[in-house]
Amino acid sequence: MKGLNKMPGKLYVVGTPIGNLEDITYRAVRILSEVDFICAEDTRVTVKLLNHFDIKKPLLSYHEHSASHVSENIISRLQSGESCAVVTDAGMPCISDPGENLVRMCRDLDIPVEAVPGPTAMATAAAVCGIPASRFAFEGFLSVTKKQRFEHLKSVSKDTHTLIFYEAPHKLRSTLEDMLKYFGDRRISICRELTKIHEEVMRTTLSQAIEYYEQNAPRGEYVLVVEGMSAEELKDEYSVEEAESPSTPPYDCSNTMDADSDNGDRFANRLAISACKISTPLECIGPLIATSRSMLINSPRPSRTCVVIRVGLPNELRVKL
């Protein structure tokens, strides 16, 4: 084919439709028709796309479980002058995708890599979600391992930009519950089956979403767009780590200290009640704050203080005295 002579030894990263086949580009069809072979995440999915556009090219399976010799074979063929297109099941490959490793290997070996842009679910969701997305972070899929999953959510819980996640239907309910636990009841836009017949975008809150999916079984593939922590929340945020640091030792709310004593002086200057677990009604918080404020007023050297009341991690009530 005429175009082959212009494409020696190059890897093409080709975006494919995320649902609607009409979203493929003319350039993507041409490149897929001209390369020597195609690396696909799932050859059974990709062959349907190729058949639709009457493209007949050798397919090579390349996924997260591929052995190292598969990558070595692809690199060897590229180095010998062949051209290859890498695709994923849907969308832009090499983002939260095993193709990322192949691109890295090519870059390390100075093998040319060229992008053939196409649809991507995260950008599509950001455009139609109805939540500010001028700044957002793509977080991909959460781990199925609870520890890693919780660590991931905790690490982004104070980010002020919008967060975008991918999720499968069978994990959606538990993911929403975990997000509510770590993020609080934020707004979320749940984007389902984007560009497909049953496309749906539901803007709601995390608690309302949990209630909805208790009554409605999740179906299809999901993109979750979650608003970040507000600037006001971040400004008033006092971390438990800061409250429990050596410079601000924790004090139990049951402590009764003489404000004139050394302990009372230390209490006034570095108070951080961070070990007070509230299991009774929230009416208890008022008297606690009043008592703490009184101790500060009577202190010889009062200073700005924060009372950190753990209502249940990761949610805390922080009150400036």
Structure characterization notes:
This protein is α/β, with parallel strands linked by helices. It has twelve helices and 13 strands. The chain has helices at residues 26-34, 43-52, 68-79, 99-108, 121-128, 146-156, 172-183, 206-215, 231-235, 240-243, 262-270, 285-297; strands at residues 11-14, 37-40, 59-61, 84-87, 113-116, 136-141, 162-167, 187-192, 200-205, 222-226, 272-277, 306-312, 315-320. The protein has a five-stranded parallel β-sheet with strand order 3-2-4-1-5, sandwiched between helices. β12 and β13 form a beta hairpin. α7 runs antiparallel to α8. The radius of gyration is 27 Å and the shape is elongated.
Please estimate the helix content: 25-40%
Uncertain segments are 248-284, 292-297, 299-321
Report how far the terminal alpha carbons are from each other. Answer: 77 Å
How large is the share of residues in beta strands? Answer: 15-25%
The gyration radius over C-alpha positions equals: 27 Å
Helix segment count?
12
Shape: elongated
* Main beta sheet: 5 strands, parallel
Strand order of the largest sheet: 3-2-4-1-5
List the helices and strands in order.
EHEHEHEHEHEHEHEEHEHHHEHEE
SS elements, strand count: 13
The structural class is: alpha/beta
Mean residue pLDDT: 80
